[in-house]
């Protein structure tokens, strides 16, 4: 069997998956199959150029890590990845900083990764590259002669062709995707954007189902919606830490229904819009006011990127004014917590909540939506209010789908969710559970890797890939 090599910007010890999300999903694949996980160590040092790869053994997995210099970190990570690709891919051209220096730093780090990774590879390795930080990695590896199968998965959305075309160097970026054997997206919408872009901008020809030919090369692309480990998360909901939190919340909020939001504090998550919708709900339903409390957990994220400080202040001021205007001596409508909740406690919080508000303006998938469902009591489940702009909305049709820009519509959905009879809650929850069980994280890994294995091998010349 081939060895699996996973490459992602950040890596984590797969035996300790405290962070959730991508780290948990990748740990899952690697722990099962064993293999190599290559990425940035998280360390920024004065001069990383000649630094060696640091290895660490973590059960069946070898972690291989490189440090970044301050200049590379600033241009690659802060500048291009999070200052250009993250906002544009989340449809926020207004927040992108197209400083011309960033793209060369982005390319430099991808070249550094390729140079350091290449000597570690075995001939029949299968390489799986993750996310927007590393789009050109396969092209850089191919330029050094790498012939192994390489797959790429984009965890965030791909915007429509014209929006993509606003990025200076967009053609370079998308051409680099053709160095992969398989490119995976979270949703059909993202795949359609890819097809639209390559057909209109790169004059690519659709070859057959899911394959496109351009730049003298053929690439396979598909939608592989990421899932969670439903069984693991359900078990976590019954473990002591979650149960303890659940019981404490139930006691403290015995007279109220809880609404919950759990997000990284990011402008893509629609937090101010969510607060405005909740304010609208409180305004329109004075009789229900003191019977509902919204707990919003927003974990600190990328605090050295300026757009993030702005969203932090906006959210704080909205929560403050809602509590100031609607609060009573014995009731505050919003509890806003600017911290990460330990993964082991999250299911307790989800289970104690009647409603989850998962209302991003744009999201690749959103795993919180799936975790909330998995943590519910099947006899008395809560209701998922989900943005139609989350990748998860393509799959989770039985959730209450909302347009997060529509304050009144979202407020109406909150009311509906709080008043939904138990029979309807059960029926919706059962249908949603079927979907998340069927398309869980194991399905995601297996189907992506099987599709990568099936890709037809093609002469992987190196010359056309020079960017
Ligand atoms: P994220 O944008 O980080 O991930 P999401 O999928 O919602 O978003 O969450 C990832 C994980 O982080 C979840 O397991 C969640 O429990 C955890 N998490 C989020 N906020 C937290 C908090 N405040 N405290 C504790 N834990 C928290 C990116 C894409 C998503 C995509 C994932 C996986 O942006 O669209 O679903 O990758 O592909």
Task: Summarize the helices and strands and which ones pair or pack.
Elements: E1 4-10, H1 21-33, E2 35-45, E3 54-58, E4 61-69, H2 70-89, H3 100-117, E5 126-130, H4 137-143, E6 149-153, H5 161-164, H6 170-177, E7 182-185, H7 188-200, E8 205-208, E9 211-214, E10 217-223, H8 230-237, H9 240-252, E11 257-264, H10 271-284, E12 292-299, H11 306-326, E13 334-337, H12 346-351, E14 355-358, H13 367-374, E15 383-387, E16 400-402, H14 407-419, H15 422-438, H16 441-454
Parallel strand pairs: 1-2, 1-5, 2-4, 5-6, 6-7, 7-10, 11-12, 11-14, 12-13, 14-15, 15-16
Antiparallel strand pairs: 3-4, 8-9, 9-10
The chain binds adenosine-5'-diphosphate-glucose.
